[in-house]
Amino acid sequence: MLTLLQNDRDVILGAINEADLVLSRGAGDFDVNYEDPAVREEIGQRKICDRHLNELSKQWHARTHWTHYFASARASSMNKIVCSIPESIEAHTNGRPVLPSKLQINKNEARAILLKEGLLVHIGLPVCSRHKTWAERTSADVTVHETGHFIYPPTLQDRLSQTPDIVTGINFQGQSEYDPDYCPPRQDVRKAPKQVVSDEICNKFYDFAYSAQIKRVKPHVPYQSQTSRTKRYKSFIGNRLIDYMTKCMAPDAFDVLKEDIIRRNQDESSDMEQKSRN
User: Fold this and answer.
1) Organism's domain of life (predicted)?
2) Which of 12, 49, 96, 277 is the most buried (most CB within 10 A)?
3) Average of pLDDT values for 175-191?
4) Torsion over CA of 258, 264, 266 and 270, rounded to 10 degrees?
5) By residue range, what is the domain housing residue 151?
């Protein structure tokens, strides 16, 4: 993939080189540091077959070849480009609309959708104006969270809200009455939950998260008392922390380690459920 690293002429929609485009589309690997010489060297040694290179870059716009990405239009408009947002996000009740303009998902939007929805929507996927607006809001929401701020009111109500955004950039380190974890000064104020591990371990964990540019990991209120949006966000950053952890523990097979962890948790849950039935 060395030549892909060097090719920055044909890149699109936020990808900085062809390797970035291929890895983002094919693996959802959006956070590669291409400025790091060691990273560039490792990626440069990777191999990619012609079929996948054509699929993810060279012949991406040959829509009829990649029907697992691009949705098909109705018979009356087979040659038209239609919104290809996955139905797991939202189904088009009146059929997928033919697109009068060229609206596509960019890299930042694809990354944000993966973080918030757990779904890889590929860079360059054609979408309708409604879903383009949703993608932009999702990207803004993730950006604000990752910089330690929050948005009020939330940009997304039931995923695809038509409500206009009101963005308030208030640093999360300060308390505000609009903060989703805000504890009002009253007698029945919610207290932070008591830690079940030592302060030393907690502080080391927080340092680890902050070094990975992940914020909002300290528990200010009981988890069950938090808003659904806050819970959803914390599950996203929890998944990112697991990614970092497995890469530190098994850099040669971090994806295998992550699968083993997930499988073990599933097995333990099944065992507990079985015991409860008995």
Assistant:
1) Eukaryota
2) 96
3) 44
4) 180
5) 81-179
Q: Which residue has the tokens 């038209």?
A: 80
pLDDT of the residue at 246? 92
Q: Greater confidence, 156 or 107?
A: 107
Q: What pLDDT is recorded for position 207?
A: 87
Q: Do both 116 and 203 map to the same domain?
A: no
Whether 260 is covered by a domain: the verdict is yes
Please tell me whether residues 109 and 175 are part of one structural domain.
yes
Number of domains in the chain: 3
> Mean pLDDT score of the chain, rounded to an integer?
76
How many residues make up the chain in this entry?
278
Do 26 and 53 meet the contact criterion of CB atoms below 8 Å apart? no
The answer to whether the bond into 126 is cis (omega within 30° of 0) is no
Q: Looking at 7-11, 119-123, 196-200, 232-236, which range is the least confident one?
A: 7-11
Structure-token pair, residue 146: 């990752």
Return the amino acid letter for 141: D
Long-range contacts of 91-100 (CB under 8 A, 24+ apart): 96/71, 96/128, 97/128, 98/73, 99/126, 99/127, 99/128
**What's residue 62's pLDDT?**
74
Residue where one domain finishes, among candidates 116, 146, 179: 179
Residue 166 inside a domain? The answer is: yes
- Which of 111, 57, 119 has the alpha carbon at shortest distance from 84? 119
Residue 168 in any domain: the answer is yes
The CA angle 18-1-139, to the nearest 5 degrees, is: 35
**In this model, does residue 145 exceed pLDDT 60?**
yes
> What one-character DSSP code corresponds to residue 26?
H
